[in-house]
Design goal:
Blueprint: H1 13-25, E1 43-46, E2 52-54, E3 59-61, H2 67-84, E4 89-91, E5 100-105, E6 114-119, E7 122-127, H3 130-145, E8 153-155, E9 158-162, E10 168-174, H4 182-193, E11 199-203, E12 205-206, E13 209-210, H5 219-222, E14 226-227, E15 240-241, H6 246-258, E16 262-266, H7 274-279, E17 296-297, H8 307-323, E18 328-330, H9 339-342, H10 345-354, H11 359-376, E19 380-384, E20 399-402, H12 405-413, E21 417-420, E22 430-431, E23 441-445, H13 448-452, H14 462-465, E24 468-475, H15 483-490, H16 493-502, H17 510-527, E25 539-545, E26 548-554, E27 561-565, E28 576-577, E29 582-583, E30 588-596, E31 599-600, E32 605-609, E33 615-618, E34 623-624, E35 630-633, E36 645-648, E37 653-660, E38 664-674, E39 678-679, E40 698-703, E41 712-715, E42 726-731, E43 738-745, E44 753-763
Parallel strand pairs: 3-4, 3-5, 5-7, 10-11, 10-24, 11-16, 17-39, 18-19, 19-20, 20-21, 21-24, 22-23
Antiparallel strand pairs: 1-9, 2-8, 6-7, 6-9, 12-13, 14-15, 23-35, 25-26, 26-29, 27-28, 27-30, 30-31, 30-32, 33-44, 34-37, 35-36, 37-43, 38-42, 38-44, 40-41, 40-43
Helix pairs in contact: 2-3, 4-6, 8-11
């Protein structure tokens, strides 16, 4: 078929306004058709007409004098080449181009809005701003890359008008607990931009490390950027850390700006400051202890709220503001333990001299003073909602990132702009599923659907909701040592966050998001992003009723089908669809995967089952006796490394629910020791220590409860011969029926902490 004639001129503003108003009234996709753009656009109309095929050589047309459009054109060309090998050309006009992608100025869709039209002549992206053109190009790229194919791409006629709900669509990246390379930070910025996320709160300082070069105070990085934890590969201490030079930071800031991402630097004060205090001891109320720097939790160390400290921190902020040109400077402010202030006669005298009520009021006074400095330099102070403690008058322009909902309401009541970043749902260090394959992190499960369900302004009065400027998810890295873990914990939940932050409330639809998830996962693979698959992974649970054994299969998402085989063959779209528990009458190799149409969207589950054989549960498949502070911890040495251990650190205790103790008479348990390196204050005294009956200690087994006499004790002697994972074996007494088995360790001290890798029940021989 001959290619059509070139595109007509750009519509004028009045026509664009009319289109927008009409579209806002009838923002619906055609019945039964999915538009594979995430976050979901404000308007997406699938239209009648012929399709268009984009092929190598088709040009992206941008005015030569429009630097912003030229930059977007190059970005789109690079994305298309990287994700599907599609080589777009460049042109200054459409005169000789039968099919083209046109970037044009116009419309009235706001600072970040755009329109996108696709028909048989190609695609036209129209926006009044560089950001709008950029986001329109991302939407077009998402459509081009949705099928996972290579080379030319065919699209149906489509009309889109789009703009964001919130101006702050953010992620917080913690580079203080574990240093990430500049290349990874830039990768994260790329991935954010492709989700239309535009604010990166960069957590650069904390107890465990100071990551930003300050030239006036060089010990912050020569001392504060390094600590000596155990090397996970050797078990020996090593110098660990790193920092970002000012040259590197300027490059990263420019890289982000080119992708319409603003970096908000976070410099913690007055708490979470051990790294600074170790570098310059006079900053602290007392001297810091370097031996605690590899711990996790809330440290007692806090800055001395003196004129000297104020002068030092304003020196720091002066250099920070020179590096980060954005409007926001984050001062942290969270979890400032004040025991050292309470114990200091000098600071108590300061509180009295200033006419303050207490230590909280002193923090408020300190924060307000820092806020005044930031405001005087033409920037806006922002911090965790703890900056509101003490009731001191913060600058009216100050804003809060609220990790507590009550903190958000307090901030809004005071008239401050507020970013919703509430835990636990927006804390992406929580697991995405309860599968044993999840990376290390916190033990609570926060699923993709949980994140999608966030409503930042739920139950708020209109006057309060008007001060909610956005939403943010937080990537705390205490227990995410590697960048691979960080990427997995961020994605695909960041896609759900993006839809919360960008899409109009009326356009949010979980079922529709599910239908777009396969295309999103396909794009991740094309970009080399190894995202977590917990939402689509097939979960297998063995079930026994009397003498009959079955296995149940499930996924978190309801879209698509689980296909399985029991003959050892790989599952395909033509394999049996799972509808009900599968009987297991003898040894079988069960293989399963989630499918959407012909496409497999999950990794393959491959499990050998034998109803007459042993049954093993990983620690993540056992039930924790309590869930006070549950963590999915990484190993600490070569023999333990990359094996997550799920444990409640305030009560290391596990339950095997309804174990068939008529059939199973032998217990095997894989155990190891991890350092108890948690700063938890008075809660440490509440952790139960069960006294050992032997010098080596024991794993104790109880039936139908975790008190009373054990029914079995397994000696820990084999596990004390090294630092790796050891297997303990013991007999269970005859117990008819099924019983909950409670597994816990004896110990005379908290450190080290014994944990389970897995437990296995063996049939009676």
């Amino acid at each position: 078929m001959a290619r059509p004639t070139p595109w007509p001129p750009v519509p004028r503003l009045l026509a664009a306004l009319a289109l927008l108003l009409a579209a806002l009234a009838i923002a619906v996709e055609a019945l039964g058709q999915t538009v594979d753009i995430t976050p979901r656009p404000l308007v997406a109309e699938v239209r009648d007409g012929g399709s268009v095929t984009f092929a190598d050589g088709d040009p992206i047309v941008a005015p030569p004098s429009d630097a912003g459009a030229q930059q977007v054109a190059q970005y789109l060309a690079d994305l298309a080449l990287k994700s599907r090998g599609l080589k777009f050309g460049r042109a200054a006009s459409t005169r000789t181009q039968p099919i083209a992608i046109v970037l044009a100025r116009g419309g009235d869709t706001g600072a970040e809005g755009y329109s996108l039209d696709i028909d048989e002549r190609g695609a036209r992206i129209t926006a009044s701003s560089d950001a709008g053109l950029f986001y329109g190009a991302i939407s077009l790229w998402q459509l081009l890359s949705a099928d996972g194919g290579a080379g030319s791409a065919t699209l149906q006629p489509l009309h889109i008008i789009d703009k964001p709900r919130f101006g702050w669509r953010g992620l917080m990246l913690d580079s203080a607990r574990h240093y990430q390379s500049p290349a990874f930070v830039e990768q994260m910025i790329d991935w954010m931009a492709l989700h239309k996320l535009n604010m990166l709160q960069w957590h650069l300082t904390d107890d465990q490390g100071w990551r930003i070069q300050i030239r006036k105070h060089p010990r912050l990085t020569s001392i504060g950027a390094w600590r000596a934890p155990h090397d996970p590969k050797t078990g020996r201490p090593r110098r660990y850390g790193g920092f970002y030079t000012q040259t590197t930071i300027r490059r990263i800031v420019a890289y982000a700006a080119a992708r319409h991402v603003t970096i908000v630097p976070e410099i913690e004060m007055p708490g979470h400051s051990l790294s600074a205090i170790l570098a310059y001891p006079k900053l602290g109320t007392v001297r810091g202890d370097p031996n605690t720097q590899s711990d996790w939790g809330i440290f007692p160390d806090i800055l001395d709220p003196s004129d000297r400290t104020y002068g030092f921190m304003t020196d720091v902020l002066t250099e920070v503001m020179d590096l980060f040109p954005g409007p926001w400077i984050n001062v942290g402010g969270d979890e400032a333990a004040k025991d050292e202030w309470k114990a200091s006669p000098r600071i108590q005298a300061q509180i009295k001299r200033l006419g303050l009520a207490n230590e909280d009021a002193l923090q408020g006074w300190f924060t307000a003073r820092i806020g005044g400095f930031i405001t005087a330099h033409g920037r806006r102070m922002i911090g965790w909602d703890d900056i509101l403690v003490g009731g001191s008058a913060l600058p009216p322009s100050a804003a809060a990132v609220s990790w507590h909902m009550d903190g958000a309401m307090k901030s809004l009541a005071a008239g401050h702009d507020t970013v919703i970043a509430t835990g636990p749902t927006l804390y992406l260090d929580n697991r995405q599923s309860d599968l044993a394959s999840e990376p290390p992190g916190r033990g609570l499960v926060v699923s993709l659907k949980d994140v999608y369900g966030v409503d930042p302004t739920a139950l708020m009065a209109p006057a309060d909701a008007a001060h909610v400027i956005g939403v943010q998810a937080n990537l705390w890295t205490e227990h995410m040592r590697t960048v691979d873990d960080v990427a997995k914990m961020a994605f695909p939940r960041a896609a759900a966050l993006a839809e919360v932050a960008w899409s109009a409330p009326a356009r949010k639809d979980w079922a529709d998001f599910e239908t777009r998830l396969p295309a999103e996962l396909t794009r991740y693979r094309a970009l080399g992003l190894d995202a977590d698959t917990g939402a689509v992974d097939v979960k297998l649970v063995q079930q026994r009723t009397g003498a009959a054994e079955t296995v149940a299969l499930s996924t978190q998402i309801s879209f698509g089908d689980i296909r399985y085989t029991t003959d050892g063959a790989a599952p395909s779209a033509k394999s049996a669809a799972y509808h009900a528990p599968i009987p297991v009458t003898g040894p079988v190799r069960l293989r399963a995967a989630a499918f959407v149409g012909e496409r497999a969207v999950s990794p393959e589950l491959d499990r050998r089952l034998d109803p007459a054989g042993p049954q093993r549960l990983q620690s993540q498949e056992l039930k924790l006796c309590t869930d006070k502070v549950s963590l999915n911890l990484d190993g600490q040495n070569a023999a333990q490394y990359r094996q997550p251990y799920l444990v409640d650190i305030l009560n290391p205790c596990w339950i095997w629910p309804q174990a068939d103790t008529t059939r199973f008479r032998e217990l095997r348990v894989a155990v190891t020791r991890l350092p108890f390196n948690f700063q938890i204050g008075a809660d440490a005294a509440k952790i139960p220590l069960r006294p050992p009956t032997t010098l080596s200690g024991e794993l104790e087994v109880r039936a139908d409860g975790c008190t009373g006499e054990p029914i079995a004790r397994l000696s820990l002697a084999p596990a004390r011969r090294g630092d790796g994972v050891a297997t303990l074996t013991g007999k269970l007494p005859p117990l008819a029926g099924t019983h909950d088995l409670c597994l816990s360790f004896t110990a005379s001290k908290l450190d080290p902490m014994w944990v389970l890798a897995w437990a296995e029940l063996e049939p009676a021989r």
